[in-house]
Amino acid sequence: MAVYIDGKALAAKEKERLMEEAKKLPRKPGLAVILVGDDPASRVYVNNKEKDCAQCGFLSREYLLPEQTREEALLELIAELNQCGEIDGILVQLPLPRQISEQRVIEAIAQDKDVDAFHPANVGRMMTGDPYFLPCTPAGIMEMFRAYGISVAGKRCVVVGRSNIVGKPMAQLLIQNDGTVTTCHTKTKNLSEITRQADILVSAAGQRNLITGDMVKEGVVVIDVAMNRNEEGKFCGDVNFAEVSAKASYITPVPGGVGPMTRVILLRNILTAAQRHQAK
After folding, report:
1. pTM beyond 0.85, yes or no
2. Active site residue: 116, 199, 224, 238, which one?
3. Percentage with pLDDT > 90 across the chain
4. Residue 155: active-site member
5. Any catalytic annotation for residue 49?
6. CATH architecture for residues 136-259
7. Could you confirm whether 6 is annotated as catalytic?
8. How many helices and strands, by DSSP H and E, does the chain display?
9. Which of 6, 15, 28, 49 is flagged as catalytic?
């Protein structure tokens, strides 16, 4: 039976450390959260991030804009926040309405306030191993590996998912830690043949029950990034948990696994930004 990787407990411990570090600064680390429209899922994410900031003694400012907001207006707000001395990190909740280019918005955020690590410059620096910040979900997963003594070096790692937020940076971090990496997605032919070779399997495809018991080998480490809902409306991931946990050595539950670690890495990035800004 697999060992459950408790992301919630790890995140709680890290929050305590971040709170103590924040107390050493002349002012509170500051986050600006911009939400355009009233998407219910985005609202939940924003509320959770604001709650996390409050728990760690960070400043959090919310900017709620109507669905019809013009791209120019959003870019003007970002430009103001780039210059704001109380704000160390800027987070624009995605997805954005159709009239707004996500790429233009991401590129408008100052590199030293890009705590989501989506800016092309931060992505490029990550490829060289010298990023301003690490992307939150992949970095959280690497922290899980360290906490549970799971070595990546020399392992066959399979990442299912190719998004710029999780799949691609996850593959890069695994490579930088000496893993041998294959990136797949839902259109990959003979996906099960590839996943059965994995010593470490990270699934971030967003498709419920995509990974079943017959698709993994005994002793595999399984990281389930996805957040889906089943027929009863309960959260679940990409992985058929009952089947896969019977064969895995380690596995993340959904919820309570990757999600809390993603949020705590965001807090770490905000603190890092604040420390740099206040050291100037």
Report:
1. yes
2. 116
3. 83
4. no
5. yes
6. 3-Layer(aba) Sandwich (3.40)
7. no
8. 10, 11
9. 49
